[in-house]
Design goal:
CATH class: Mainly Beta
Radius of gyration: 18 Å
Strand content: over 45%
Strand order of the largest sheet: 3-20-19-18-17
Shape: globular
Order of helices and strands: EEEHEEEEEEEEEEEEEEEEEEEEH
CATH architecture: 6 Propeller
Number of strands: 23
Helix content: under 10%
CATH topology: Neuraminidase
Number of domains: 1
């Protein structure tokens, strides 16, 4: 990504190229770059917070290659819990060859990751340092090659359903899965729900109650065209193509997507676009799912205690 950076005393990096939030949304939302993750191999892949620690980010490194892996890095937060930067250096969390833009926890806190160009979904049980399953999803009908995946949060249409999108074709799929008896999941079938554009490499569901999102919606990282797009969703949690509108433009290599459960902030990475993490503020804080709150409880308590001790 071409452009210059200005580093502020807060540690944020202000981007000085053509990245902008669409004027319709700009009065309610703002963005900044956290910069590059220390010691994370490029290019960057998908990202999410560790399920039981709101101060540990998991992010793909050396994405799309045989050396692809998931790395962990600490994050810092301000007094309002917004992520403001990184703490320490990236360390290996698990090998994940060909990891791409999709990285999300599913049922049972199994970690799911998309693989490109091998059109695969990897699964990691708690404590695993390599994939426990690595399924070629061509066999269930997902067009090569997969770019991203996620699970519909509680309270949304289609809650609990698994969704996947092909980077190459834009096909957006509803994926049925079932327990395999050993702690991971069979991927039983995939049904094409709609086709979207832009080289999708990540998607999230917009926290309900967020300004200017009057209906249930999602954001999609469009790698090929350098945009973040917004869509209304249907009764099954799929994007409705006719509702697409720009949310953010002028990016380079938009990749991955996740919503911070503490603040509702939207974070995404960039693949090759200076390899950085960008955070967008202004969304409503999501209503946490009971399982999520239980998992995060220890981490949140530690965060509160650390603040009180300062």
């Amino acid at each position: 990504m071409r452009g210059s950076f200005a580093v502020l005393a807060s540690g944020f990096v202000v981007l000085s190229f053509a990245q902008t939030i669409d004027p319709f949304y700009a009065g309610d939302y703002s963005y900044t770059s956290l910069g590059s993750v220390p010691d994370l191999p490029t290019s960057y892949g998908g990202l999410t917070l560790k399920f039981d620690d709101p101060n540990t980010l998991l992010i793909g490194g050396a994405a799309n290659g045989a050396a692809g892996a998931i790395y962990s890095i600490g994050v810092t937060r301000d007094g309002n819990n917004h992520i403001t930067g990184f703490s320490g250096s990236a360390t290996l969390f698990a090998t994940a060859p060909q990891i791409d833009g999709g990285l999300a926890y599913g049922p049972g806190n199994v970690l799911f990751a998309a693989g490109f160009p091998n059109n695969a979904i990897m699964q990691f049980k708690l404590g695993s340092s390599s994939p426990d399953r690595n399924d070629d999803v061509s066999g269930i009908g997902i067009a090569s090659s997969l770019g991203a995946l996620n699970f519909v949060p509680a309270g949304f249409n289609g809650a609990g359903r698994m969704k996947a999108v092909s980077f190459s074709t834009g096909g957006f799929y509803d994926v049925l899965f079932s327990a395999d008896g050993v702690g991971t999941y069979n991927l039983d079938s995939a049904t094409l729900a709609d086709t979207i554009i832009g080289g999708p490499e990540g998607f999230v569901y917009v926290p309900q109650g967020s300004a200017l999102f009057g209906v249930q919606s999602m954001l999609v990282s469009e790698w090929s065209v350098g945009n973040i797009a917004a869509y209304d969703i249907d009764a099954q949690g799929n994007p409705i193509f006719a509702t697409r509108r720009d949310f953010m433009t002028g990016l380079s290599g938009a990749e991955g997507a996740f919503i911070d459960p503490l603040t509702g902030d939207f974070l995404f990475s960039t693949f090759g676009g200076s390899n950085q993490v960008i955070v967008v503020q202004g969304f409503s804080a999501p209503v946490p799912e009971p399982a999520t709150m239980a998992a995060l409880g220890i981490g949140v308590l530690a965060l509160i205690r650390r603040r009180k001790s300062k």
